[in-house]
Specification:
Layout lengths: L19 H12 L10 H16 L6
Helix pairs in contact: 1-2
The structure holds zinc ion.
Length: about 60
Amino acid sequence: MSCPICGKETVQKYRPFCSKRCADVDLAKWLKGGYAVPSQDPDDIEEALDAMLDAAEAPPKPH
Ligand SMILES: [Zn+2]
């Protein structure tokens, strides 16, 4: 079986993915509902993931 995100060989620890990053990318796709992602281009998905993680990790902004 190969990673559904990037097609690399699956790693047991991260099945069915090859890495935590690909698992995170899949989670981001799922959270965004899939259809909300403008394309299946991995770069777009990674950008969406990075934006999501930035938003999640950013501290609350003081006024
Ligand atoms: Zn992968």
